[in-house]
Amino acid sequence: MSLLKIESLVARHGLLPAVQGISLDIEQGETLALVGANGAGKTTLLRTVAGVHPVSGGRIVFDGEDISSMPAHRRAAAGLALVPEGRRLFPAMTVEENLLVARSAKREGRWNLATVLDAFPQLVPKLKAAAGTLSGGQQQAVAIGRALMTNPRVLLLDEVSLGLSPLAVQGVYDSLRALMGMGREQGTTVVLVEQDLKRTFQVADRIVCLLEGRVVASGRTDEMTREQVMDCYFGHRTTASQDAALSIATP
Fold first, then answer.
1. pLDDT over 70 percentage in the chain
2. 250 lies in a domain?
């Protein structure tokens, strides 16, 4: 049984549909990447799964339970954690305070202040610094560390590399690799929105391409090419030979 199951999910911004009937099955320990152009519905999908955007239709099933109407704080307590686009830290609070605030989820597990600092050693000398004074890469590390402090079963990462220097991106992904490589039984399940396709192919087990709020393609990263993904990214049809390697969904 899938750990996270999304069934015919619909989400709107007012009258504008942003997610249109998306269905996905996500397994324990899997890293799934969502790709697509701006406005494809990636961020809205993550926010809806996390409970910070309302479900307009369909349902979300987490570990066998329908959580479609469950408030965000209860989803966090159940094991869903969102690292939002823009990080959303408390800038006047210290790094340590930003991390410790996540203990309110009261979930037991391997992640605590010590293990988060082991994963993100660049934060150790910054523990007493205000989060708003940190570099972009350091702030992203705090945002991910704060989510890990809830000991999530599913980690939702929105635009990890947005606005960061290449060096900062590399540092964040170096720390994430240990999390993603822990194995199916122990590893945290990750759903990742990432614009950098090269990076996506390096870290994801499976890629799902969204276009105008719908899934238009999905497949394992070892069965796809960057060119196939780019075709779907911009709404182009693939050739018959590409279709053999790439599962094409009918909009």
1. 89
2. no
d(CA 148, CA 102): 8
From 135, 30, 151, select the one nearest 79 (Cα to Cα).
Answer: 151
Q: Does the CA dihedral 74-80-86-92 come out positive or negative?
A: positive
Strands 4-13 and 57-62: antiparallel
> What would the pLDDT profile of 144-170 be if each residue is shown by its tens digit?
999 999 999 999 999 887 777 787 778
- Could you tell me whether strands 16-26 and 4-13 are parallel, antiparallel, or unpaired per DSSP bridges? antiparallel
**DSSP, res 220:** E
Distance CA 29, CA 3 (A): 9
Cα–Cα dist 240/230, whole Å: 16
Residue 192 lies in a domain: yes
Domain count, the chain: 1
Domain that holds residue 120: 4-245
Q: What is the pTM (predicted TM-score) of this model?
A: 0.86
Q: Which residues contact 77 (CB under 8 A, 6 or more apart)?
A: 105, 106, 107
For residue 15, give the DSSP letter.
T
Enumerate residues 6+ apart whose C-beta is below 8 A from 101.
90, 93, 146
Q: Is residue 127 in a domain? A: yes
Q: What is the CATH number of the domain that holds 194?
A: 3.40.50.300
Domain-embedded: residue 209: yes
**151, 115 contact by CB (below 8 A):** no
SS3 of residue 185 by DSSP? coil
How many other CB atoms are found less than 10 A from the CB of residue 3?
18
